[in-house]
Specification:
Number of helices: 7
Order of helices and strands: EHEHEHEHEHEHHE
Structural class: alpha/beta
CATH class: Alpha Beta
Helix content: 25-40%
Largest sheet: 7 strands, mixed
Strand content: 15-25%
Distance between the termini: 32 Å
Strand order of the largest sheet: 2-1-3-4-5-6-7
CATH architecture: 3-Layer(aba) Sandwich
Number of domains: 1
Shape: globular
Radius of gyration: 16 Å
CATH superfamily: Alpha/Beta hydrolase fold, catalytic domain
CATH topology: Rossmann fold
């Protein structure tokens, strides 16, 4: 049964996106598909997400990107939220700014206001064109989320160099209470935090063993 649901944002996540690789690399992970990725409607997207949550394992972990983060936020006051074990919210988008060019996005604003009823981590970038870092900090506070700062990581997508993203899987494991994954005997997530970005990456210690 599905243990992880990957939730894309506006225009979906094409081949080569870390969310697509995740579904290949984790046997019990599935991507939430929408009928129309280019014209997001909150009610339609919520129904699709809630249907897959209902068909998943209890305590399913949600891994959202961009506008998909606000979609997850919309679960805060809905019964389906009780079946979620945690959420990894990567590069959330500024719904107000998006709505200026795509009016249907305005409804997603509701998903940015309430405290989430499950554990959550926001992963943000210092140079994301769709949300400033200070906005991401404010959003993490509203959701009641831990915050991970990736430094200058763009929109944390293909365009900013993100294909496979094993550190994301490590963060999701932390939400499950699992120990960090190791590959070939090396804890790559721990090494990433301690060696690759010592000056511009940080994380709240939420029991993940990466700070």
């Amino acid at each position: 049964m599905t243990q992880t649901l990957l939730i894309p944002g506006l225009n979906g996540s094409p081949d080569g996106h870390w969310q697509r690789f995740w579904t290949q690399d984790e046997p019990h992970a599935e991507l939430v598909e929408q009928e129309d990725w280019a014209s997001p409607r909150l009610t339609d997207w919520l129904h699709a997400l809630e249907a897959q949550i209902a068909a998943s394992a209890p305590g399913v972990i949600l891994v959202a990107h961009s506008l998909g983060c606000a979609l997850v936020g919309a679960l805060a006051r809905r019964p389906a939220g009780a079946h979620v074990g945690g959420a990894l919210l990567v590069a959330p988008a500024d719904t107000t700014a998006l709505a200026n060019t795509l009016p249907t996005v305005a409804a997603f604003e509701a998903g940015t206001q309430a405290t989430l009823p499950f554990a959550s981590i926001v992963v943000a970038s210092r140079n994301d064109p769709f949300m400033t870092f200070s906005q991401a900090e404010d959003q993490a506070r509203r959701w009641g989320s831990a915050l991970v700062d990736l430094g200058a990581a763009g929109h944390i997508n293909i365009g900013s160099g993100y294909g496979r993203w094993p550190d994301g899987m490590t963060l999701a494991d932390g939400l499950r209470g699992r120990p960090s994954r190791q590959r070939n005997g090396v804890d790559h997530a721990r090494r990433w935090w301690s060696e690759v970005h010592p000056s511009n990456a940080s994380a709240h210690d939420v029991g993940l063993g990466i700070v």
